[in-house]
Structures are given as C-alpha cells and as structure tokens.
Design brief:
Strand content: 5-15%
Radius of gyration: 22 Å
CATH superfamily of the largest domain: Type I PLP-dependent aspartate aminotransferase-like (Major domain)
Number of strands: 12
CATH class of the largest domain: Alpha Beta
Distance between the termini: 32 Å
Low-confidence stretches: none
Largest sheet: 7 strands, mixed
Structural class: alpha/beta
Number of helices: 14
Shape: globular
Mean pLDDT: 95
Helix content: 40-55%
Number of domains: 2
C-alpha cells in the first residue's frame, strides 16, 4: 500500500518492536517490569484533583475554552517563571498554554517552517524534536552529541555550512533521553551564537523540576534571550499530570504569536476545569514537587547501586526521571534494539532502546524511574540473573547477530 506523503517521511517506529513483544508476554501472563516509557506512576496531588472536580461541577465551565489558555493559567505560569528563574513575562504576548509540550512543539515547528527550511537538532534527542520538522515538511540537520566533542564548534559549523540558513535550533535540558544538564553559561553561549547568526532557539525544559543537585536554569534567564528564544515547559512530570496534557510556551513574542495563530485554527484549548486545576498546581503548595523529586532520587539510587552490583555500571543522573545506560560490555555488539528485546525476553524488564532517539543513541538504553523500589529491586534481580548467563549462548538462542 502506498503511504501518504508525510507518513512516508517518518521512519519505522523503533519502540513498536519492543511494545509488541511486551504486549505478547503480558498476554502470556508474564510479569513485565516496564521501565520503558516515562509515564509517572504517582497520583496527581489531591488539591489539584479537587480543584478539577469542583470546577467540573460548574455547569458554565463545559463550553469552548480559549486556544491560548485562560488568562488565569497564563498568569500562573508568569508567576512560576518569576519565582523560579526571576524572569519577567507578559501573560498576553509572551506566554501560551499548549495541550502538552509535545503538541506545542509540533505546532510551533509547523507554524515557522516551510518545505525548504531546516532545523538543527542534537542527536540523540526526544523524537518530536526531529520529527516535528519532518511532519511539517521541513528538513533536519543533526548535530551529534558525541562524548568529548565541542557542541558549540559543531553548532557554528552547522549554521555556516547549511543552505538555506537554519530556522531554529532545538535544545533540551535536562535532556530526554540522556539526562544531561547544563549551566547558565552554556545557554549564554547558545544565545550568543544564535543571535549572531539570526537563528531561533527552541528550548524544551520539561524536566527542570526533577533534579537531585543544583536546580537547572532556564534559557530565558540569559539577557537578550527573548529576542530569539522560546521555551516549552509542562506539568506532566512536575506534578505527575502526564495524562492531563498541560504545557506552555514562553518567550519570544513573534514565535508566541505564530503558535497562537496556528493553534487558533486547530483547537479550542484544554477543557476549562483542567486549566483551572493546572493554575492551582502552579499557584498552590509546592511540597508535592519536592516529594516527587525525593521519590525519583531514591529510585535512582536503588537502581544505580543495584545495577552496579549486578555487573552493569551505569551513571547516576543529576536530573530527570531517566538513566541513560551504556550497553553492557558483552552486548555492545548487537545494538540497543536487540539488547532491549533480550532484556525483555530473559529478564522480563522493558527499557527504551537508544536507537529510537537517533543513531548516536544506539550504544545506550533509556531506563525510566517509574516503578516503586520493590519492583526496581525485582528488576535488578532479574537483570543480574540474565547478565550471569553466557552471552554468546543467549545471542545464539535468539539468533541475534552482531
């Protein structure tokens, strides 16, 4: 069957193979420990749920809303940026609510690119960062995130050697999938380079409240950043509200206007009670955020220590809800997808293969901290037993070739 144009430009969905295997094993009654998807398992804070319930009982709250978000929600985000980053924003011209940050990113790219345009995207990266451009009909130039490589030199070279000049650079810290964090000086260099060359910056800050050391900064803290930068945030991980689909964009007025305009044709915004409850999350008590942060830290520590004891040393992330784990030495030759399938088959543990985030992610898997400590300890025991087996025999059993 001939594919439609935009669908044909998308590569096969790598995660589908692991998901299909996971579904089959569950149908067979196997107890799969799923550390693949970054889906928070903690309940949304009760005061947020109660605000949703109370507002939903208001019969006037069930009509069309506003695609850019109600004023109270946009004002709540302005308050958050001021408290957290000491950044001043205009709720009417520098902020827009989105139906999750993923929708906002995709629609912004749709709004600002055409068929001949190019976006710069680090590799590995979260899939929508690259494929938002592909879906929009634009093109992507990847900047490999290689260990020891100078990103800024690569960035300048990519801008200077790309024709036509790139429209925008997408960056994401704390990074999904790699959990990398950067300081304000990093953002200052990015802003300086992109201002000099007239390139917009699209920053994805979705994991900025899940940190275990210093709080990650915002690119909008850099003087002059709002001349070229827009930043996406979300309540998904911060308040365990992934299914609520509440996100935001803030920053450059021209980009905010472009996103506002295209969204006005596409949607009427989120259900109003969700927006009111989201504002309550941002404006209300924040102890729940610290509790979630502590929960992920404890899970990180259990998993990092346990995997090291099992013979699989992995780095401890300083932020995000993910561990970016290099493949165990004796399985490096088969790549991340085949290793993920073996781990699922032999240890009943699901992880995300790094190749799904770009070719330069293939030497890793992403492990999400989305199970309780008891389940993580069970995963560690299963993985330890798997790694104790003869690797060549395991590969032969599943006919996996290097």
């Amino acid at each position: 069957m001939e594919e439609f144009y935009r669908i044909s430009r998308l590569p096969p969905y790598v995660f589908a193979e692991v998901n299909k295997l996971k579904a089959r094993f569950r149908a067979e009654g196997k107890d799969i420990i799923d550390l693949g998807m970054g889906n928070p398992d903690s309940p949304t804070p009760p005061h947020v749920v109660e605000k949703l319930r109370a507002t939903a009982l208001d019969e006037t709250a069930h009509g069309y809303s506003v695609s850019r978000g109600i004023h109270g929600l946009r004002k709540a985000l302005v308050g958050y940026y001021k408290r957290r980053f000491d950044v001043d924003l205009d709720p009417d011209s520098e902020v827009i609510a989105t139906i999750g940050s993923k929708e906002g990113l995709a629609n912004l790219i749709q709004a600002i690119t055409g068929p001949s345009d190019i976006l710069l995207v680090p590799n590995p990266s979260y899939p929508i960062h690259a494929y938002g451009a592909v879906i929009a009909g634009a093109s992507v130039r990847f900047i490999p995130k290689l260990e020891g490589a100078n990103f800024f030199e690569q960035l300048v070279r990519a801008i200077q050697n790309t024709t036509p000049k790139p429209v925008a650079l997408i960056i994401n810290f704390p990074c999904n999938p790699t959990a990398e964090v950067v300081d304000l000086e990093y953002y200052e260099k990015v802003v300086a380079i992109c201002r000099e060359h007239g390139v917009y910056v699209i920053s994805d800050l979705a994991y900025c409240e899940i940190y275990f050391e210093e709080p990650p900064p915002s690119i909008l803290q850099v003087p002059g950043a709002k001349e070229i930068a827009i930043e996406f945030t979300t309540l998904s991980k911060t308040y365990s509200m992934a299914g609520w689909r509440v996100g935001f964009a803030a920053g450059n007025k021209r980009l905010i206007h472009a996103l506002t305009r295209i969204k006005s044709y596409l949607d009427y915004g989120m259900f109003t009670p969700i927006q009111v409850a989201a504002a309550a999350a941002l404006n209300g008590p924040q102890e729940c955020v610290a509790e979630f942060r502590q929960l992920y830290k404890e899970r990180r520590d259990v998993l990092v220590k346990g995997l090291a004891d099992a013979g699989w040393p992995v780095p401890a992330p300083s932020a995000s809800m993910f561990i970016w784990a290099p493949l165990p030495e004796k399985y490096k030759d088969i790549g991340s997808l085949e290793f993920s399938k073996l781990l699922l088959s032999e240890a009943e543990v699901a992880v995300a293969p790094g190749i799904g985030f770009g070719e330069y992610g293939d030497g890793h898997v992403r492990i999400a901290l989305v199970e309780n400590k008891q389940r993580l300890r069970q995963a560690i025991r299963n993985i330890k037993a798997f790694l104790a087996k003869d690797a060549d025999a395991v590969k032969a059993k599943y006919k996996v070739a290097a």
